[in-house]
Each structure stands twice: as C-alpha cells, then as structure tokens.
Amino acid sequence: MLHFGGLLQVAAGCCEIPLTTIRQPDRLMADAAIRVLHELIQGIRTPEPNAVEVFPCELVVRASCGAALK
Questions:
Q1: Tens digits of residue pLDDT in 28-48
Q2: Per the domain annotation, does 70 fall within a domain?
Q3: Number of independent structural domains in the chain
Q4: Do residues 1 and 10 make contact, with C-beta atoms less than 8 angstroms apart?
Q5: Is 26 part of any domain?
Q6: What's the rounded Cα separation, in Å, for the pair 13 and 17?
Q7: What confidence score (pLDDT) does residue 6 get?
C-alpha cells in the first residue's frame, strides 16, 4: 500500500503499519503555482491547458510495502 503526498505524510509514519509514501515538494509546487498565476494576471504568460511542470519527489519506504521494520 502506498500514499502519494498530501496532509497524511506526517501521519503515515505513525500508523500501526507505517504507510509507504511519496514525499512531494509542497513549497516548490506552491511557489510555481503563484508564479504562473502572477504571470497570467500580468499578461506575461498565456493559458496553456496542457502545460506540465515536473517536480522532484522522494520515495519514503515504510512497512506497508513489506520493508523490514527497524
């Protein structure tokens, strides 16, 4: 079982069986969203419906995927 980001990131390690998660860079994603919104408002950028921005993420392996408990 795996959880991908979100508010449960902190709680994932506290469960009876700690949940493996993908850690996302929340701050970088928020900064990018604000930057794009600002550029759209200022007319610097035009809307791009299929625009993609890639952010680094980190796999946090815990017991839910069969990893040995430490």
A1: 999 999 999 999 999 999 999
A2: no
A3: 1
A4: no
A5: yes
A6: 8
A7: 58
The one-letter code for the residue type at 3 is H
CA angle 41, 46, 48 (to 5 degrees): 120
Is the pLDDT at 62 greater than 60? The verdict is: yes
Residue 34 lies in a domain: yes
The mean predicted confidence, pLDDT, of the chain is: 82
In a domain, 32, yes or no: yes
Domain hosting 10: range is: 2-65
Tokens coding 42: 């200022």
Nearest to 5 by CA among 50, 47, 60: 60
The number of residues in the chain equals: 70
Other C-beta atoms closer than 10 Å to the C-beta of 19 total: 20
CA dist., res. 69 & res. 62, Å (int): 8
Tally Cβ neighbours within 10 Å of residue 26: 13
